[in-house]
Write a structure and sequence with these properties.
- By secondary structure, the protein is α/β, with parallel strands linked by helices.
- It contains 14 helices and 15 strands.
- It has helices at about 15-25, 55-65, 70-90, 95-105, 110-130, 150-160, 190-200, 235-240, 255-260, 315-325, 345-350, 355-365, 390-400, 430-440; strands at about 5, 30-35, 135, 170, 175, 180-185, 205-210, 230-235, 265, 275-280, 295-305, 340-345, 370-380, 405-410, 420-425.
- Helix 1 crosses helix 3 (about 70-90) and helix 3 packs antiparallel against helix 4.
- It starts with a strand and ends with a helix.
- The mean pLDDT is about 90.
């Protein structure tokens, strides 16, 4: 059995965390391929947290662009890595790497290059500490000339290289364009690197180690000590990630999903906790949870459209959707009635076109258009158990009514395993608590 293991920035923030990571890896011989992030925030003696190395690199590079000396600006970053090396007792010097990075900063190698150096340097340190081979992600992870990830070429490259390596460390977050320029994934992209490595080596399991013991049913910043989700499907996770659940980079689902590889979310600081298993199909359960998870986001707006006889007017919705496509506006939900249509979209999307109502009038000649800009939050209640359970929706709305929360919009997915409600932003936290408490066992 082969396991691919990814460790987040908090898991590799300092030498103490490095030792925890090494113990986890060495406790299981099947953990053969390791994807590290850049060092995250450390807990300082005063209890506060300092800065992530990736943020330090962004700041450093921007200072260089502003005309400052890269050698001086890079010094705190070098001290951070040198401190980890010294604390681990390694006979390793990164001076030549530092010189190369500083020289490339002077050549204006780009923010992607700058940001990627945290993972790159951390990967070198971790490979030395573990005694594993180091493979620069720029050599095996490829992007097309337009900046899109080249999945097919990357899968072949990784498979060809890793089949010759019994154990290896591959830095997360970045790859390279055809011309050799470094290109990064979006923030949290180390999750995606782990996923594509797992697919390439045909791993039986992809372990994603972080600072929480799995996915929580609800945001712990809103609900006190929410339950951990034991098992969640890829589809459920996709819905929750899109609506704001941030434990796992949402795009990282796709490579392992197509390969049928489960993901196990684990806690570096509580390695014995089973965490959350993410699977293609959940095992049969005599008493499955009705609700798997609750997640939501704020800062939405609504465009209300009314037109008499809209239901009999062929092409009405098509014209609206074509208009949104022409204006390059993404919408989130499109609830409809007989003569009404509401477009729910991020407020930032609405701000792109302050004259949107003029465009809609021209395209569809509605009777009424009302724009409610901002103030709306969307909450997704997701659960594979909802399909087979009567009265789930009524319990949700009863809980919200009892909490004094007004429901402004309602939408249900076509597969009936999610319900999405819109509430006033001021009611967001209270709504999440009410829904959670309604279904908590």
């Amino acid at each position: 059995m082969v396991k691919v293991v990814k460790f987040g920035g908090s898991s590799l923030a300092d030498a103490i965390q490095f030792r925890k990571v090494a113990d986890i890896i060495k406790s299981d011989a099947e953990r053969r391929y390791v994807i590290p992030s850049a060092p995250g925030k450390r807990v300082l003696p005063n209890g506060e947290k300092d800065t992530k190395v990736t943020d330090m690199l962004y700041t450093c590079y921007r200072a260089v662009l502003a005309g400052k000396d890269p050698k001086n600006e890079f010094l705190p970053i070098a001290e951070r890595f040198d401190g980890i090396i010294a604390d681990l007792g390694l006979s390793l010097s990164l001076e030549n790497e530092y010189k190369t990075i500083i020289a490339n900063f002077r050549k204006k190698a780009g923010e992607d290059y700058a940001a990627s150096r945290g993972e790159y340097l951390n990967g070198i340190i971790l490979s030395h500490y573990l005694g594993y081979s180091f493979i620069d992600a720029a050599k095996v992870i490829s992007f097309n000339t337009n900046g899109d990830f080249n999945a097919e070429f990357t899968n072949a490259s990784l498979a060809a290289v890793l089949c010759k390596k019994e154990k290896a460390v591959i830095p997360g977050f970045y790859g390279a364009m055809p011309n050799g320029c470094i290109k990064t994934f979006s923030r949290g992209g180390s999750d995606f690197t782990g996923s594509i490595v797992a697919k390439a080596v045909k791993a039986e399991l992809y372990e994603n180690w972080t600072d929480v013991s799995g996915f929580m049913v609800a945001d712990p910043n809103i609900v006190d000590e929410p339950e951990v989700i034991k098992v969640i499907t890829y589809r459920e996770l996709r819905e929750l990630s899109y609506m704001g659940a941030t434990v796992l980079h949402e795009d990282s689902i796709f490579p392992v999903r197509t390969a049928g590889i489960p993901i196990n979310i684990r806690n570096t600081n509580e390695p014995d906790a089973p965490g959350t298993m993410i699977v293609r199909t959940a095992p049969k359960d005599d008493n499955p949870p009705i609700i798997t998870g609750i997640a939501g986001k704020k800062n939405f707006s609504v465009i209300h459209i009314e037109k008499d006889g809209m239901n009999n007017e062929i092409g009405f919705i098509r014209r609206i959707l074509s208009l949104l496509e022409t204006l390059e506006i993404n919408f989130e939900h499109l609830p409809t009635g007989i003569d009404t249509l509401s477009i729910i979209l991020a407020t930032d999307e609405l701000k792109k076109h302050p004259d949107i109502t003029d465009h809609i009038r021209e395209a569809a000649q509605p009777n009424i258009i009302v724009v409610e800009q901002g103030g709306l939050a969307m909450i997704a209640i997701v659960g594979r158990g909802m399909v087979e359970t009567r009265g789930t929706a009524s319990r949700i709305f009863a809980a919200l009514a009892h909490a004094g929360v007004n429901v402004r919009t309602i939408d249900q997915g076509s597969c009936e395993f999610n319900v999405i409600v819109g509430v006033n932003e001021d009611d967001f936290d209270e709504a999440v608590k009410a829904i959670y408490n309604c279904f908590a066992e």
